[in-house]
């Protein structure tokens, strides 16, 4: 009887019993099927009670290592049965033993799932899907209802959310749904899968009314998935919202629990649902033949299980979907596969009379898309919680699977035997090499060649004929040494007598080492120990032996190392011959998890097969990447990030990644041309809505500009009538009498220049004096611009022209700025200055529009205003930081950094020291994180809530700023420190309410996209005069120079 026929005979209760057994295995870490079945039987199906039986200290677990290990491929065992539609027919999957569900394994949830199944008939896995989806939707809706302002939010400017050219579209995280984004993007970028989804037409029989629960669930989901894929193809938005597809998943089941979802579990369930949807269509279209399901054709393969159980041979063909692989104890993907394909004592497979048990798996049919689940979680029974395995596991961009194919099993067995023989020989050689490299019988061991060298150096040292202590005067110890004997009281040698010394005994004195005051070693004292008695003949014989022995050891060590390298190379090339590289699979996508077992963040690296480059899909952020970055984040062993799921595709099946072509013209179809008509209309409507949003934004900005111009025209430039018209576009910092902060400084500078010009000029006509004054002012400012002052003395704050000069502004801009200075109405306080003011105003009127580009003039002055504003943000932020007002300082420092970065992007001298601002921004976040953690540790409800408010409203929204530039290693390290600080609580005992809050908060901390969002409202800045601004800035910078900061 085949496994497929046997599966059809499985009853519904048997399948759910297997689900319960899987849950027990995940919770307790016990793999013995008989023990789990007995515990379930003794507890009468009560899973909570069964867990208690199995985890009790006095529980006796029988040791059955062989019989239970090979149950998996025997008839009657349904470990590999898929939960989807194929489980009802003939699909066998390898995902039954899913240890990644351990994070849900607490007794209360088990009890609820048990009760829910008895009442509703809905499986526990379906309820788990429902719980996470409800949590995602609820969190998304809750975030829309928040009344308190956050530091970051979606940019109100739609141009920030506009798609750039043909850049891939991202997916918005609608609340703990990074797992959804990672899986969907991986599948969407499989062009054949994309075509199947986009061209899916629901069966005609189900158009009006779904016939059953599966149709009621799957068909609406397929509709929303088609819409989502269509938007990913043709949207003009930078990212789209998948909430409607997630809503469909949520509505399919009912539950109140919340949990971050697991990628492999979601992928498994998603493919099941797609399989169901396509099965409905396939059954409708069949013409007497067995219907073909494209999802099965794409993602499912077959393997042959050949084994021996207690001397009885068996052979079964089974189907599989996602293939699970253990990570712990293996260094690369091939080692994982070898371990998964061979179980037990395989020698028994080739012998007739053996009582041993074992089995081999051989692929008979590989799917076009082959997905490996990497099991990176294990249950720690001592701690009673799941833990993530961070071990490094390498995998190649091209994976050759010939060695695992049934057609190659004979040659593979030969090669495996040869590799086994080589590894046994390798072990012997490594043991021998270890004896040379770690020589000795004590706890400390050294390389033998070094031991011989040390002996040779000792023997060759200059002999000494005295004891090492004979030449030391005990009555006068060497400087810097302290004898343990009582110090003599001789006044000449020791100073005060012993009666004058405090009561502390000389014996109890601690030795004080003074490396710079102690006397040096006497020149005649040998640097190393040396033999006291040795003849020339003895030395000659000994040196000859030691030289010869060292040479022999060196040769032996080198031969062993070379032999080990040759064997390693032989093993590596064992499968490199042409016959074993005929089944290439190319890495298509890597799903990465960062965090711990209980919480984390997912993103995906996906290969662009046409551009031949890797792309990183991190929720709404889609960026170019490299294999080196993928290695760092995916292999493991670096930070807390590692690959969790690998998706390979058959490199010879080009239809998987091939673009569509127009059948009539032969031209490649791209973008909207690939969509069916109904989806084209859907995307066009969405794009129209987005274009309308852009138009409304433009209209709103135009209206604001018009209002500002109207307001400016209605504001009088002078308090008294004057023949000089108001100068349009005068910079805001050249304030009028109502705001004299900067004008007062400019007035003083102008008067000083005029006074000096009058002293130099014999002919004192207003025009001549003005020209001389402008030249003098220009020379003064040029000198300031060319000086190299200390950080506390920033001359750019003194005058806009200094800023313009340092940044090479056009000469016309500088000239007009100086004319504006001398044409300011504040110079009308006496007749002499008033005449010069009128001449300057007349000169301004004579400047033609084509001589000075006023738009460019305004841009330069606006940039200077931005520079002064950035300075004030920095100054106030640093002042608050020094006062330890970190919450208030953070926002100022964030705005200072962002504004400064924008300034520096235009030129080196347009902003402040970026490292300085970055350091204090980083320090502020770290101190706030520590403060929030301390509040959380207090356990007081109010304190805990305050700590989480700090994290949610200040720190978490700011983390993308530190992660956006991957070259800033200090910022990335700071983020890791903050995350690890909170992840460390996962292994600690705490109250249930704290555990619940931590579980809810951690995904937000770890789910941190590098997408920079817009500001809400910047902090208010006080008004400073130029003199006060320069003085306060100098004061704060001087205080920093007295306590240097890292990064300055």
Automatic annotation (TrEMBL):
Residues 680-707 form a coiled coil. The keyword Disulfide bond does not apply. InterPro entries: Papain-like_cys_pep_sf, Peptidase_C19, Peptidase_C19_UCH, UBA-like_sf, UBA_8, UIM_dom, USP, USP25/28_UIM. It is an enzyme of class 3 (hydrolase). GO terms for biological process: protein deubiquitination; proteolysis. Keywords: Coiled coil, Cytoplasm, Hydrolase, Isopeptide bond, Nucleus, Phosphoprotein, Protease, Repeat, Thiol protease, Ubl conjugation, Ubl conjugation pathway. Residues 481-508, 710-746 are annotated as: Disordered. It catalyses: Thiol-dependent hydrolysis of ester, thioester, amide, peptide and isopeptide bonds formed by the C-terminal Gly of ubiquitin (a 76-residue protein attached to proteins as an intracellular targeting signal). Homotetramer, inhibited form. Homodimer, active form. Interacts with ACTA1 (via its C-terminus); the interaction occurs for all isoforms but is strongest for isoform USP25m in muscle differentiating cells. Interacts (isoform USP25m only) with MYBPC1; the interaction prevents proteasomal degradation of MYBPC1. Interacts (isoform USP25m only) with FLNC (via filament repeats 17-18, 20-21 and 24). Interacts with GAPDH. Interacts with SUMO3; the interaction sumoylates efficiently USP25. Interacts with SUMO2; the interaction sumoylates efficiently USP25. The muscle-specific isoform (USP25m) may have a role in the regulation of muscular differentiation and function. Belongs to the peptidase C19 family. This is Ubiquitin carboxyl-terminal hydrolase 25. It comes from Terrapene triunguis (Three-toed box turtle). The lineage of its organism: Eukaryota, Metazoa, Chordata, Craniata, Vertebrata.
């Amino acid at each position: 009887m085949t496994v497929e026929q046997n599966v059809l005979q499985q009853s519904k209760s048997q399948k759910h019993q297997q689900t319960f057994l899987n849950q027990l295995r995940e919770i307790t870490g016990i793999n013995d099927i008989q023990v789990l079945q007995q515990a379930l039987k003794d507890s009468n199906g009560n899973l909570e009670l069964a867990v208690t039986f199995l985890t009790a200290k006095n529980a006796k677990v029988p040791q059955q290592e062989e019989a239970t290990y090979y149950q998996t491929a025997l008839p009657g065992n349904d470990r590999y049965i898929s939960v989807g539609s194929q489980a009802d027919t003939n699909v066998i999957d390898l995902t039954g033993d899913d240890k990644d569900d351990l994070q849900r394994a607490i007794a209360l949830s088990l009890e609820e799932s048990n009760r829910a199944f008895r009442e509703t008939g809905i499986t526990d896995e379906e309820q788990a899907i429902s719980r996470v989806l409800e949590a995602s939707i609820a969190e998304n809706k809750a975030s829309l209802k928040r009344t308190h302002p956050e530091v970051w939010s979606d940019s109100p400017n739609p141009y920030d959310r506009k798609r750039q050219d043909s850049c891939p579209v991202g997916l918005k995280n609608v609340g703990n749904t990074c797992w959804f984004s990672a899986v969907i993007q991986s599948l969407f970028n499989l062009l054949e899968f994309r075509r199947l989804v986009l061209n899916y037409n629901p069966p005609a029989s189900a158009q009006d009314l779904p016939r059953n629960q599966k149709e009621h669930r799957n068909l609406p989901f397929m509709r929303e998935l088609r819409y989502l894929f269509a938007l990913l193809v043709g949207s003009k938005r930078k990212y789209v919202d998948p909430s409607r597809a997630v809503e469909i998943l949520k509505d399919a089941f009912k539950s109140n629990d919340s949990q971050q979802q697991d990628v492999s579990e979601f992928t498994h369930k998603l493919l099941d649902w797609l399989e169901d949807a396509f099965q409905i269509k396939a059954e409708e279209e069949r013409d007497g033949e067995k219907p073909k399901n494209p999802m099965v054709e794409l993602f499912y393969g077959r393997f042959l299980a050949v084994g021996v159980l207690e001397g009885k041979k068996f052979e079964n063909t089974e189907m599989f979907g996602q293939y699970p692989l253990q990570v712990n104890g293996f260094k690369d993907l091939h080692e994982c596969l070898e371990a998964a394909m061979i179980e037990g004592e395989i020698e028994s497979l080739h012998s007739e009379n053996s009582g041993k048990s074992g089995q081999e798996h051989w692929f008979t049919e590989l799917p076009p898309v082959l997905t490996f689940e990497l099991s990176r979680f294990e249950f720690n029974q001592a701690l009673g919680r799941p833990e993530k395995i961070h071990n490094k596991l390498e995998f190649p961009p091209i994976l050759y699977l010939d060695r695992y194919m049934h057609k190659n099993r004979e040659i593979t067995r030969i090669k495996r035997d040869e590799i086994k023989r080589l590894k046994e020989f390798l072990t012997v050689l490594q043991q021998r090499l270890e004896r040379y490299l770690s020589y000795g019988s004590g706890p400390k061991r050294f390389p033998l060649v070094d031991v011989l060298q040390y002996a040779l150096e000792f023997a060759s040292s200059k002999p000494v004929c005295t004891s090492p202590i004979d030449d030391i005067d005990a009555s006068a110890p060497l400087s810097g040494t302290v004898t343990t004997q009582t110090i003599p009281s001789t006044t000449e040698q020791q100073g005060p007598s012993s009666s004058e010394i405090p009561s502390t005994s000389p014996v109890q004195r601690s030795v004080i080492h003074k490396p710079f005051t102690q006397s040096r070693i006497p020149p005649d004292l040998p640097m190393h120990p040396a033999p006291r008695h040795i003849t020339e003949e003895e030395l000659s014989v000994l040196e000859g032996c030691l030289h010869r022995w060292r040479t022999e050891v060196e040769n032996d060590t080198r031969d062993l190392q070379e032999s080990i390298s040759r064997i390693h190379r032989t093993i590596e090339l064992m499968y490199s011959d042409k016959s074993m590289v005929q089944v290439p699979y190319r890495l298509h996508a890597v799903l990465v998890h960062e965090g711990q077992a209980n919480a984390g963040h997912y993103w995906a690296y996906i290969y662009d097969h046409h551009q031949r480059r890797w792309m990183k899909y991190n929720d709404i952020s889609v960026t170019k990447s490299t294999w080196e970055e993928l290695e760092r984040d995916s292999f493991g062993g670096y930070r807390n990030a590692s690959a969790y799921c690998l998706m390979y595709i058959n490199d010879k099946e080009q239809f998987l990644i091939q673009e569509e072509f127009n059948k009539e013209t032969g031209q490649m179809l791209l973008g909207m041309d690939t969509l069916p008509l109904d989806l084209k209309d859907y995307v066009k409507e969405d794009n129209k809505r987005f274009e309308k949003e852009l138009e409304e934004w433009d209209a709103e900005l135009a209206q604001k500009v018009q209002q500002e111009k109207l307001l400016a025209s209605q504001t009088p430039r002078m308090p008294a009538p004057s023949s000089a018209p108001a100068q349009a576009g005068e910079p805001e910092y050249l304030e009028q009498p109502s705001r004299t902060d900067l004008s007062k400084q400019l007035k003083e500078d102008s008067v000083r220049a005029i006074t000096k010009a009058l002293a130099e000029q014999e002919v004192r006509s207003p025009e001549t004096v003005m020209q001389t004054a402008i030249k003098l002012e220009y020379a003064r400012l040029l000198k300031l611009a060319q000086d190299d002052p200390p950080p506390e003395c920033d001359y750019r704050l003194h005058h806009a022209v200094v800023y313009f000069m340092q940044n090479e502004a056009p000469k016309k801009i500088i000239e007009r700025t100086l004319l504006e200075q001398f044409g300011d109405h504040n110079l009308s306080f006496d007749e002499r200055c008033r005449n010069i003011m009128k001449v300057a105003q007349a000169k301004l009127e004579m400047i033609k529009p084509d001589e000075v580009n006023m738009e460019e003039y305004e841009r330069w002055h606006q940039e200077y205003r931005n520079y002064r504003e950035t300075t004030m943000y920095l100054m106030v932020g640093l002042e608050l930081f020094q006062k330890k007002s970190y919450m208030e300082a953070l926002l100022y420092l964030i705005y200072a950094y962002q504004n400064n970065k924008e300034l520096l992007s235009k030129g080196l001298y347009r902003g402040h020291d970026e490292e300085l601002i970055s350091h204090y921004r980083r320090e502020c976040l770290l101190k706030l994180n520590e403060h929030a953690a301390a509040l959380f540790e207090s356990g007081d409800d109010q304190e805990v809530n305050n700590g989480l408010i700090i994290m949610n409203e200040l720190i978490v929204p700011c983390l993308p700023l530190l992660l956006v530039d991957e070259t800033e290693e200090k910022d990335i390290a700071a983020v890791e420190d903050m995350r690890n600080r909170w992840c460390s609580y996962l292994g600690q005992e705490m109250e249930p309410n704290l555990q619940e809050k931590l579980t809810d908060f951690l995904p937000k901390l770890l789910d941190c996209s590098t997408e920079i969002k817009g500001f809400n409202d910047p902090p208010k800045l006080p008004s400073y005069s130029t003199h006060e601004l320069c003085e306060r800035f100098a004061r704060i910078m001087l205080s920093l120079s007295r306590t240097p900061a890292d990064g300055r």
